[in-house]
Amino acid sequence: MGRLHPLDWLVLALYVVLALGVSVLLTRRASSSTREFYLAGRTLPWWIAGTSLVATSFAADTPLLVSGWVRTGGISLNWLWWGMALGHALVTIVVAAWWRRAEVTTDAEFIERRYAGRQARVLRGFYGGYHALVTNTIVLTWVLTAMIKLVRVVLDLPDDRADALIVGGALALALSYSLLAGLWGVVLTDLFQFVLAVGGALLLAWKSVAALGGLDAARARWAELPAELTRIVPSPEGDWNALAWWTTGFGAFLVYFGVQGWLNKNADGGGQAVQRFSACRDEHHARGTMLWFSLAHYCIRPWPWIVVGLASLTLIAPEHLPMLTGADGVPVPDHEAAYPLMMAQLLGPGLFGLLCASFLAAFMSTLDTHFNLASAYVVNDLYRRFLRPGRSERHYVWAGRAAELTVGVVAALLALATDSISDLFTLSLGLLGGLGPALLMRWFWWRANAWTEIAALSCSTLLTLLGRVPLPGVGVLLPVPYPLSYAMVVGVSAVVALAVTLLTRPADHAALQRFHDRVMPSGLWRPFRVGRRLRNRALPILVGWAGGAVLVQGLLFGIGRWLLGRESWPAFVAATAAALALTWAWPRALHPVPRAADADGKVSPPDL
Asked: Taking a C-beta distance cutoff of 8 angstroms, is the pair 224, 310 a contact?
């Protein structure tokens, strides 16, 4: 069928059998309780949790998206997500450990740990529903959209008549082991999926370079491309007073790195990361999870996709790409389809099936995580908390499986109605972008309360919709292009959140004291440290934050410049110095958790 050889079908079948076999073996353990189904018993080491998080963030859409950006806007367009390494460095040095100490199942549950009162209960319930049915569903939708594009190319389908079958088959496969084994099935199959996906990407990159005559010949070809396509950082040329300067090129880079990079919807980790931190053995494994994720996510994985994108500029002309209908009704090339076309053009039987299996693995690792996470929000933060408290653990596991099915159907319907991965990605960032400052405030400032987040979330969503959704007879009310619109949303939301914080009462003092004693956060928490002499952790946190960020960016730049045939040693020297700084800060950045002896003399953390 299409471009698949019988040997390719055999490789795909072997992968499916392996994934389903693991799930069947783990079903009994995962079904015993929600702790096992959603948190793998809180026993994961850093390398399993971190690899699972890397695998989750790489779906079938990611290589298509990155290679498409390279073709249309150049390598530097990847700062749309590279800049987020800045925020992840802060999560690595302290926030990941704080999440593990909080011992929650979801970040929505955290709301009632951190705050108190009716507004906290309402916000927790809202987050549970919003993340289950909106944010996770958007991710599932763009992943399914990418799978449609991939399968059309792989099977050489001329039109969209088989899209419903593609989506239905993909959902059935992904749900099968997510429903059976919960997070246990997700993380263990993710280990294999990571190796297969990264190996497949490296294989295609190597074949792409070979098709250009080897690395030296490829570098020479890339040097002939327009400079804006091969710059890692865009040129600062142009008038910074012009609107276009802030929406493309260097101005956009500044917004991506300086604003979106650490003030985004995942400013303190994000739902899937929080689930992995909470599933770790302890706080130290949680920090290691985030460090390994950052290195693999930013430094190792993107360059094979970029190499394929650069090579495709020479090997695949725009007129050979499938066509999409543009905003003005004029057909435009679908550059996101270049990656699967490179697969079909460069790989023979067996190898082509191996790369298709790697895409299937990447696709499954993302879908099963978001199915499981959406289910956790529904059960933990809505169903058990407000609708059906006091039921058995097995009851809640089955309720979670029903929630996964529901979310899957919604995402499938949306995937059949859209064709742009990039638009969905930027929409998801914008809707919750203004929440970033509030997410950091709740960790570093005791005065933040539930109204802080309610104000930031409401303002962010409203401004994003006003900037993207046209009104009948009026059009878009805030026609500011992305990413300048993102900076505007974050800035306004931060001001509104701060004002609301100061105008409303703080959370209950006793609740804040319990939270402080369990988590021991740094920053403006002096009223809750009465009688304690705690060392100031500001310097280690700042050094660790900077060290983690420079380590990741140094390796990213160094590897990229080497591949392009440019001087790379300064970047590697900077990465080495940053690693030493991070090593110094690592044991010094966290306040130790106070321990209390019980009646038997055993030492344990204070109970919330």
From this structure: no
Of 454, 458, 61, 47, residue with least CA distance to 291: 47
Instruction: Give pLDDT, residue 469.
Output: 72
- Cα–Cα separations (whole angstroms), residue 344 to 153, 206, 314, 353, 402: 8, 15, 16, 10, 38
Domains, the chain, in order of start with CATH, read 6-525 (1.20.1730.10)
Task: Specify the 3-state DSSP secondary structure of 158.
Answer: coil
pLDDT given for residue 304 in this prediction:
95
Whether 350 contacts 16, CB under 8 Å: no
Q: Work out the number of other CB atoms within 10 angstroms of the CB of residue 121.
A: 16
E strands, 295-417, in order: 323-325, 331-333
Alpha-helical regions (H) of 469-568: 484-503, 509-519, 538-563
Please give the Cα distance from 304 to 217 (Å, whole number): 17
Using CB atoms within 10 Å of the CB of residue 144, give its burial: 0 to 12 exposed, 13 to 18 middle, 19+ buried.
Answer: buried
User: Within 10 Å of residue 135's Cβ, how many Cβ atoms?
Assistant: 21
Q: Which one is predicted more confidently, 1 or 215? A: 215
Contact 401, 385 (CB under 8 A): no
Q: Across residues 175-194, what is the average pLDDT?
A: 78
pLDDT of residue 228 exceeding 80, the answer is yes
**Which of residues 171 and 115 earns the better pLDDT score?**
115
Q: What is the pLDDT of residues 254-291, one digit of tens each?
A: 999 889 899 888 899 988 899 999 999 999 999 999 99
For residue 6, the model assigns a pLDDT of: 81
Q: What is the dihedral of CA 602, 605, 607, 608, to 10 degrees?
A: -170
Output the DSSP codes for 71-135.
HHT-GGGGHHHHTTHHHHHHIIIIIHHHHHHHT-SSTTTHHHHH--SHHHHHHHHHHHHHIIIII
Owner of token pair 């290589």: 63
pLDDT tens profile 3-47: 677 877 787 788 778 777 777 776 776 667 788 888 888 999 999
